[in-house]
Amino acid sequence: MKEFSIFIAPLVFMFLGLITYLESDLPHQKIGYRVLTVKQTVETWQVSNKFAAKVLLVFGGLLLIFGVILNSYFRTLAIWELIVINVIELIIIGGLVIGLTEWRVNISFNKEGKKK
């Protein structure tokens, strides 16, 4: 069971991406990418949440493939190494989702939330 713990972070990202993609039509209080810049209009909410969901799905899938490769070559990883790998994945993907989504919102909308 220990060897499958490397798939925790990718599966969580893919699950969150799927939920965000399916629920991104209207602003929610609990689900989705929620920062002040995207809560200005419904259109900014939809664009940013669809984009963030796609980023989560893509990078979750890439990390899943990376996990399969790591799992096939390094079956003797200690539990602390697996935890470190999952934490690093969480930090990197979290930063990428926030950075790429903010970039997408900034190139698509002005400060008031209107399309450029």
Q: Approximately how much beta-strand content do the residues carry?
A: under 5%
What is the number of E strands? 0
Helix content: 55-70%
**C-alpha termini separation:** 50 Å
Compute the gyration radius: what is it?
16 Å
> What is the count of helical runs?
3
Structural class: mainly alpha
Could you name the ranges where pLDDT drops below 50 across 5 or more consecutive residues?
A: none
Query: Main β-sheet: number of strands, strand sense, barrel status?
Result: none
Average pLDDT confidence is 82
The helix/strand order is: HHH
What overall geometry do the principal axes of the alpha carbons give? Answer: elongated
Pfam families: SdpI
Protein name: SdpI family protein
InterPro entries: SdpI/YhfL
Keywords: Membrane, Transmembrane, Transmembrane helix
Task: Describe how the helices and strands are arranged.
Blueprint: H1 8-22, H2 42-73, H3 79-108
Helix pairs in contact: 1-2, 1-3, 2-3
Structural summary, described in words:
Keywords: Membrane, Transmembrane, Transmembrane helix. InterPro entries: SdpI/YhfL. The chain crosses the membrane at residues 6-24, 55-74, 80-101. This is SdpI family protein. By secondary structure, this protein is mainly alpha-helical. The chain has helices spanning 8-22, 42-73, 79-108. The mean pLDDT is 82.
Write a brief structural summary.
With 116 residues, this protein is an all-alpha fold.
State the main characteristics.
single chain; 116 residues; mainly alpha; transmembrane helix; membrane; transmembrane
